[in-house]
């Protein structure tokens, strides 16, 4: 196993489409709920412990070798809003292309054939991590980091925040990121005995509601 693969997988420059999405922070900024670095910190912390935890559990389970199609169905159940389902599958399709180029594997090929329009992004992330020789914890950590890294980067553009403040925020969340990844990986380890119901299903209703609203905007900076 090379931890360099984890750096590549979590790198925002990976051509998987994540840079075009704000993780819900564009809608939060427009609504006035995120106005500054303090508001962004609260937003990211809430997202990490809800959507981030759920995504981390799915990624960890996929990296652990559990049935990717069953996990994809579980991701669908955990994504009740059509707009976010579409986004997750679109990002999953783009990540599949990048992962198959970087870490060719029969598992990625099978997932692509079974879900040609895209599996959910956290599931693809986990299968890619497995192909790269990474652990369930590594995959969960990458998913958790993505859940806050994207919004932090988007907020710099939306609010004109100092990039140093956004970076400092991510650094301050390090312990919580580790904790979420550990919880997700532990849940993933129980899937073999308990099924997908062992995985987190934390919800963030306001993110769901604003995602649908954002999708209907005629003009927006980010795709979601």
How do the strands and helices of this protein lay out in sequence?
Blueprint (H helix, E strand, L loop, with lengths): L3 H7 L14 H6 L6 H27 L4 H10 L4 H21 L3 H9 L6 H11 L4 H24 L3 H10 L1 H15 L2 H4 L10 H11 L9
Helix pairs in contact: 3-4, 3-7, 3-8, 3-10, 4-7, 5-7, 7-8, 8-9, 8-10
The H-and-E topology, N to C, reads as HHHHHHHHHHHH
Count of distinct strands: 0
Instruction: Please mark out the parts with pLDDT under 50 across 5 or more consecutive residues, or reply none.
Output: none
Radius of gyration: 16 Å
Query: What can be said about the biggest beta sheet?
Result: none
Identify the overall geometry: globular
Number of H/I helices: 12
The assigned structural class equals mainly alpha
- Average pLDDT: 95
Distance between the termini: 34 Å
Helix coverage percent: 55-70%
Which strand-content bin applies to the residues? under 5%
Subunit structure: UreD, UreF and UreG form a complex that acts as a GTP-hydrolysis-dependent molecular chaperone, activating the urease apoprotein by helping to assemble the nickel containing metallocenter of UreC. The UreE protein probably delivers the nickel.
Keywords: Chaperone, Cytoplasm, Nickel insertion
Protein name: Urease accessory protein UreF
Function: Required for maturation of urease via the functional incorporation of the urease nickel metallocenter.
Description:
By secondary structure, the protein is mainly alpha-helical. Helix content is 69%, strand content 0%. It contains twelve helices and no strands. The longest helix is centred in the first third of the chain and has 27 residues, at 37-63. The chain is globular. This is Urease accessory protein UreF. InterPro entries: UreF, UreF_sf. UreD, UreF and UreG form a complex that acts as a GTP-hydrolysis-dependent molecular chaperone, activating the urease apoprotein by helping to assemble the nickel containing metallocenter of UreC. The UreE protein probably delivers the nickel. Keywords: Chaperone, Cytoplasm, Nickel insertion. It comes from Streptomyces durbertensis.
